[in-house]
Design brief:
The complex is a heterodimer of chains A (about 475) and B (about 400).
Chain A lengths: L8 E10 L5 H10 L4 E5 L5 H6 L1 H21 L17 H26 L1 E5 L1 E6 L2 E6 L2 E12 L3 E3 L11 E2 L1 H4 L8 E5 L3 H13 L2 E6 L10 H13 L3 E4 L1 E6 L5 E5 L2 E8 L3 E4 L3 E3 L32 E3 L11 H15 L13 E3 L4 E6 L2 H6 L4 E7 L4 H5 L8 E7 L5 E8 L6 H9 L4 H5 L10 H11 L7
Helix pairs in contact in A: 1-4, 1-8, 3-4, 3-6
Chain B lengths: L1 E6 L9 E7 L6 E2 L4 E6 L4 E5 L4 E6 L6 E3 L3 E7 L7 H4 L37 H10 L17 H9 L25 H16 L2 E9 L1 H12 L10 H15 L5 E4 L4 E4 L5 E3 L1 E3 L2 E3 L2 E2 L7 H16 L13 E5 L18 E15 L2 E15 L5 H16 L7
Parallel strand pairs in B: 12-16, 16-17
Antiparallel strand pairs in B: 1-8, 2-4, 2-7, 3-6, 4-5, 6-8, 9-18, 10-11, 12-15, 13-14, 17-18
Helix pairs in contact in B: 6-7, 6-8
The chains are: A alpha/beta (about 475), B alpha+beta (about 400).
Chain lengths: ~475, ~400
């Protein structure tokens, strides 16, 4: 630069947030509420993976697909629930995607509006750090240089790519799967984790012929057998083919998927595929934006190392969500970290110390896991008692046909003082029960606390009450 | 992949069982050969058991406080290669349960548990709002006892904790309050061993105690002299090494006092060796390290060996060997003095000597009041096998040596 005069616009702020996903935008709103001058930089749309291309659009698609599936049952001979539809229910995929995009757009505008109202400045552009507290942002309006007193890294994560079948063309990630113009006749899902199964089931509902390839011995390997079982049965019922213990090998010239069993690597088999959805995990979004210039320590898996306040080794640099080592790759974990970090920067003493971070899989049936599983509780040395209550014994579940997928609620508690350690559930619509499970654990509830709480009739939440009673040995609605 | 099952090894002569005091590995943990896996306490010492193999911990047997018999499978590992047992064998066989349920930590039923009862994990039970307030006010929740069910900590508990003078409570006198809480401390580990040993001693031995004053003025003069002229590097002499050497002489004269009484076999075993147990208070509780063959030592060797074994006991490094084999025990109350005590005999020994501090006292000699240095001795004897006369005579002989210290070394 000549004579030290810079032509680049300069900005200064107390808090600079990178990434407007569920971690970053919450941090920026809270920082703004606390009166801190706040800038948030987003390379795409405010809302991040969660709102724009993950949680929300996938749930929209799952719901639409479910509706189509239900309507198809009514379109069959004789109908269902006494309702018949003359002629088959017809899908217009572009209409579905447009409807989904409408929801996404509303939420995106909502987040932008909330940021504005909180006094946080949203800048669209790609941030690149020069040092730990300085970054330049390239956007449509030119280049900008931001100097911040505090930085919150909320860059999130990206889908993991397989080197032998890179994304592009008919090999797609979850992001493209949510924007397909038409339903593929044959969809091969590589990776039977929660994202693969959620979308795989949605496409099966929409009419695709779906095959899942999973390298482990089972799909959804992070859950125990009892919880997985209803999902596995429903996959069968929907005609989704599942191959476990197999590795994808590549795509042949006709665009079909080649794979081989773990033990017979030589024997290549082929699956017809119009689209190949690769969902083998997500990795921290840690390159291409100057992380290496910041002096921030990362773990061997590329996550940013943080302490209990999400502070990195660099003073005034924080990291939250999927990029942070403690993020659990869950939107709600990121949000709660974002809120906390803003409060820390404002001078409050805080620590991220949840007892339980709920995890939900939106398959059909859904799976909820909060707190400790029976195995985890035993391994931690707790004397464990367990109670289970089937949705088939819950009246409200029957009226909604939520029992048809064979779900149940399982409660894990300490035998001596009856503290609730964990709650797991599998079943249609059980995701909405997760809040009560988490609240019970976070408040340190005993079985007697939930047993003594009246649960409204008729609701599925009664199943939790009954699961707790079952743990105490005296459930009412099962023998 | 194979299963390697590991039985609790023979950890010392005559030891048939041990109490689990700590696990160093969790189920699923990967261990290397010789990594510590388990601490087991026996009658005498705590022994750390190392892993016999490289592998992954598959099952563990016994919670902290449980008794494991020697030879019981205590841990199984998943190992590369064959292992040493089949899957079925690796399943722990039923343990012979201790017929003493009161020793087990009680599991409570649905009744409200006692305040502050926590277990399993040490994380305090409190709602998010209480945790946040504690964080903000700098209160350590792990130190606050909760009044709620399962020891849950409430806002009121935090108020009470601050009022009671927590580290950050405001200065000024706290109001005095009547308290109703109780704290249950499980009797496990060394405390249980001490309790069992004391109960055994006190319930089986017919104790009688005998007290005497000893004029140690001359001994004190000798001790001061030896200390001021002691060889380089030699430890300072206290009264104890003199008393130990005097006991060598006195016990040789009264062999019925340097004995074990095996009451089951009804045999008295008189020992030629004089192995003196030194009751030692440690951070973990009472230990009795042993100075062996005092009869073969001079004064300086005695003080050196006594210093070695007692500091080993204090540091928790005493071996089983160093904690067993005493024939007679000394318990010194040191500076805490006191005017008398009734020491409990270290079963199966037949006598114990309690030593109090020496103080300058006014005593009558030849019709005049003079100042002499007086040490009080308290002794207890097993009246089943030591008659009152013999016990008293033993102490009188000891007194004679201590009052005429030159005779100790003749």
């Amino acid at each position: 630069m000549n004579g030290g005069i810079s032509l680049v616009e300069q900005k200064k702020c107390q808090v600079l947030v990178i990434g407007a996903g569920p971690g970053g935008y919450v941090a920026a709103i809270r920082a703004g509420q606390l009166g801190l001058s706040t800038i948030i930089v987003e390379g795409e749309k405010a809302g991040g993976t969660c709102l724009i291309r993950g949680c929300i659009p996938s749930k929209a698609m799952i719901n639409a697909a479910h509706k189509l599936h239900d309507l198809s049952a009514m379109a069959k001979e004789g109908g269902h629930m006494g309702i018949s539809i003359p002629g088959p229910a017809e899908l217009n995929m572009e209409g579905l995607v447009a409807w989904k995009d409408g929801i996404v757009k509303r939420l995106n505008k909502g987040v932008e509006n909330l940021l504005k109202r909180a006094g946080a400045e949203l800048i669209n552009g790609w941030a690149e750090f020069i040092d730990a507290k300085t970054c330049k942002v390239s956007s449509a309006d030119g280049e900008l240089r931001i100097e911040a007193e505090n930085v919150i890294l909320a860059n999130g994560s990206v889908p993991t790519e397989l080197p032998f079948m890179p994304f592009g063309g008919d090999v797609i990630s979850s992001r493209e799967a949510l924007d397909l113009k038409e339903v593929p006749d044959n969809l091969v899902v590589v990776g039977g984790g929660y994202i693969g199964l959620e979308l795989g089931i949605a496409f099966a509902h929409l009419g695709s012929n779906v095959t899942v390839l999973e390298a482990m011995e089972t799909v959804l390997p992070i859950f125990d057998r009892e919880l997985r079982r209803p999902v596995e049965l429903n996959l069968k019922r929907l005609g989704v083919k599942v191959h476990t213990g197999v590795f994808a090998k590549g795509i042949d010239d006709d665009g079909n998927v080649q794979y081989a069993a773990k033990d017979e690597q030589e024997k290549i088999q082929t699956l017809k595929a119009d689209k190949v959805l690769v969902t083998v995990g997500r990795r921290p979004n840690n390159n291409g934006w100057g992380l290496e210039e910041m002096g921030v320590k990362t773990s061997e898996h590329g996550f940013v190392i943080v302490d209990g306040r999400c502070a990195t080794n660099m003073r005034g640099v924080y990291c939250i969500g999927d990029l942070a080592e403690r993020g659990a790759m869950l939107a709600h974990a990121a949000s709660s970290q974002g809120e906390m970090v803003a409060e820390v920067i404002a001078g409050n003493i805080r620590e991220w110390d949840p007892v339980a971070v709920p995890a939900i899989v939106f398959t059909e049936p859904e799976i909820v896991e909060v707190g400790l599983s029976p195995e985890q509780a035993s391994a931690e040395g707790h004397p464990v008692i367990i109670g289970k209550f089937p949705l088939a014994a819950n009246g409200r579940a029957l009226t909604m046909e939520a029992e048809k997928t064979g779900g149940f609620i399982r409660v894990v508690a300490r035998e001596d003082d009856h503290r609730i350690l964990g709650v797991q559930a599998v079943g249609t619509n059980v995701s909405e029960l997760s809040g009560e499970f988490t609240l019970a654990i976070e408040m340190g509830a005993l079985l007697e606390d939930v047993a003594g709480t009246i649960h409204a009739h008729p609701t599925m939440s009664e199943s939790f009450h009954e699961g707790v009673l079952a743990t105490l040995g005296h459930a009412i609605h099962i023998a | 992949m194979g299963i390697y099952s590991f039985k609790l090894p023979d950890i010392g002569e005559g030891i048939v069982e041990g109490e689990v005091v700590a696990w160093h590995v969790e189920i699923g943990a990967t261990v290397k050969e010789d990594d510590p896996v388990l601490d087991v306490m026996t009658d005498k010492a705590t022994v750390t058991i190392p892993s016999p193999v490289d592998g992954t911990v598959r099952t563990r047997r016994g919670n902290v406080g449980d008794i494991l018999p020697v030879g019981q499978t205590c841990i199984t590992f998943e190992v590369d290669g064959e292992g040493n047992s089949s899957e079925e064998e690796a399943e722990p066989e039923p343990v012979v349960e201790e017929p003493a349920p009161e020793k087990k930590p009680k599991t409570k039923a649905a009744t409200p548990p006692a305040p502050s009862s926590r277990g399993g994990d040490s994380k305090p039970l409190a709602s998010p709002a209480v945790r946040r307030r504690a964080k903000e006010e700098g209160l350590d929740l792990s130190k606050v006892s909760g009044s709620g069910p399962a020891g849950r900590i409430t806002h009121a508990d935090l108020d009470a904790w601050k009022d009671a003078g927590s580290p950050v409570a405001a200065a000024g006198p706290a109001p005095r309050e009547a308290k109703v809480g109780t704290t249950e401390v499980p009797v496990v580990g060394l405390r249980r061993k001490i309790a069992e040993q004391m109960h055994k001693s006190y319930s089986s031995i017919a104790h009688f105690s005998y007290f005497e004053d000893v004029d140690v003025t001359n001994l004190e003069e000798l001790r001061q002299h030896l200390n001021s002229t002691r060889p380089d590097g030699a430890p300072k002499l206290t009264y104890l090494p003199f008393i130990m050497q005097a006991l060598v002489k006195a016990l040789a004269e009264r062999p019925e006092c340097n004995a074990h009484y095996d009451d089951e076999r009804e045999v008295i075993i008189r020992h030629e060796a004089i192995n003196l147990g030194i009751a030692t208070q440690t951070e973990r509780g009472l230990y009795v390290p042993v100075v062996k063959n005092v009869e073969a030592m001079d004064l300086w060797q005695t003080v050196a060996e006594m210093g070695r074994v007692t500091s080993a006991a204090k540091d928790g490094e005493a071996s089983l060997e160093e904690l067993s084999g005493s024939t007679f025990t000394i318990t010194s109350l040191g500076k805490m003095g006191g005017t008398g005590a009734t020491p409990i005999i270290n079963h199966p020994e037949v006598g114990i000597l309690g030593v109090h501090n020496a103080v300058d006292s006014a005593v009558v000699r030849d019709g005049n009041i003079v100042i002499r240095r007086i040490m009080k001795l308290s002794s207890s004897w097993d009246h089943r096998v030591v008659d009152g006369f013999d016990g008293a005579m033993m102490v009188q002989i000891l007194k004679n040596y201590l009052e005429h210290p030159a005779t100790i070394f003749m």
